[in-house]
Specification:
This protein has 357 residues and is α/β, with parallel strands linked by helices. It folds into 2 domains: 219 residues, Rossmann fold (3-Layer(aba) Sandwich), CATH 3.40.50.1100; 97 residues, 3-Layer(aba) Sandwich (Rossmann fold), CATH 3.40.50.1100. 42% of the residues lie in helices and 14% in strands. The strands form 2 sheets. Strands 1-2-10-7-8-9 form a 6-stranded mixed beta sheet, with helices on both faces. Helix 3 crosses helix 4. The protein starts with 10 loop residues before the first helix and ends with a helix. Bound molecules: ligand F0G. Ligand F0G binds next to helix 4 and helix 9.
Length: 357
Amino acid sequence: MNSGPLRRMGVIERFAGILPVSDKTPVITLLEGSTPLIEAVNIKKSLGVSFDIYLKYEGMNPTGSFKDRGMTVAVSKAAEKGSRAVICASTGNTSASASAYAVRGGMKSIVVIPEGAIALGKLSQALIHGASVVAVKGNFDRCLEIVKDICENYEVEMVNSINPFRIEGQKTAAYEVFQDLGRMPDYQFMPVGNAGNITAYWKGYREISESGGCTPPRMMGFQASGAAPIVEGRVFDNPETVATAIRIGNPASWKKAEEARDESGGVIESVTDSEILSAWRELACLEGVFAEPASAASLAGLKKSLSAGDIPEGFDGEAVLVLTGHGLKDPGRAVESVDPPGVVEADIEEVARAAGL
Ligand code: F0G
């Protein structure tokens, strides 16, 4: 047995060889990455399938979402260049991550969010890290347009996923899945919003496949049906979904997501809000994994693919579901969606009876 504690590495240190960093890059890290790949035995049983299902639980990153993988690279590269400030538009998680990493790098952060449309946990993160938070009377797509314009006119580094360093950092999740499974999964199910993450995973899987000759997974991306521009092939001017993280009508990486779908032989489909919410509850109640609603689009998508016959009968390989963010980002929705706790007198018998003992 190893007597010393295991030293945790961040994404840049663990994956330096495949990232655009050098000895001159200051490493701004919160020791992100190395997230668990959890076998979902109970979901497998409840679906009655013969393949194995794994949950890549990205909510275990330092700020509670997958964004930290890309942010450590984007903010470190901004620091290398001498930038003093970073900016992003966000449905919440990017803003939480950018503001935390900016603090580590001694930079100012500016986050532009759609007013009233981001989960409270995410807003609290940006605020407590001291970001300049600007809430815009408009949706995410409008926020992103404004941020792009600002970057053309002011000295500030854009850290949305159109920044290629974000994609480089996020592709490390594909390497982790490959290393943890010891092989490529056959399918990967994931939510799609601005489409940076599906782009990043596909880049990672393609790189691994090119160097090792193994077949990358089919990329199965899922948008919410009220915010499904890629599925329907049109911009959504007023995207709507309970999964606020993916409430996006005009994704920045639209074309790249289509490439990931087409090159991998996958699909980009939509799932309804009620399918997302029931998958979200199943993750919590069957596996003990509390993800945020947008993340559950991956399980909702798997169920949809099964009923659509997109997965062959008797398939017995491996499917990975990416759970992009932690459930504690949006506790209000969880509390709203269940019965409130029963209140009793402070008496042992009353408590035991109420607890069903
Ligand atoms: N899941 C969560 C929890 C997210 O926060 C996001 C995106 C996605 C999925 C979709 O990822 O945009 O790369 O396709 N959130 C961004 C943000 C837009 O601002 O936090 P994507």
